[in-house]
Prior knowledge:
Number of helices: 5
Strand content: 5-15%
Number of domains: 2
GO molecular function: DNA binding; transposase activity
Number of strands: 2
GO cellular component, one term: cytosol
Family: Belongs to the transposase IS30 family.
Structural class: mainly alpha
Shape: globular
Function: Required for the transposition of the insertion element.
Domain Integrase catalytic: 1-129
Distance between the termini: 18 Å
Largest sheet: 2 strands, parallel
Helix content: 40-55%
Amino acid sequence: MAEAPRKKNGAALAGHGAExxxxxxxRTIITLPEELRRTLxxxxxxxxxxxxxxxxxxxxxxxxxxxQSPWQRGITENTNGLLRQxxxxxxxxxxxxxDEISAVAAALDAxxxxxxxxxxxxxxxxxxxx
Length: 130
């Protein structure tokens, strides 16, 4: 099975509790075409305590990585590194406006990636969906 193109499209959260995370993921996931809403791979964090409800709300199967195994979510680790160019580790995102955070997401979506044959994530997603 081919992987769907990678695109930073998640919402920034005001909090990171299980309910806030579930709500943000549900709101984001349901905006995607159905063929992109198959699975979500997450680490073992407490913020996913409501993963069963997420499956019900968004119709997506949630899988968990093994503890201490960040390589099982390689794209997430890579994206976190890219985000650190804009927001150093420990940055309080609540001091940034939604427009500022959206601008960073747009900048990352416009950055060509080797894994996508030097297409941008936005280009690869458009191609995948057409």
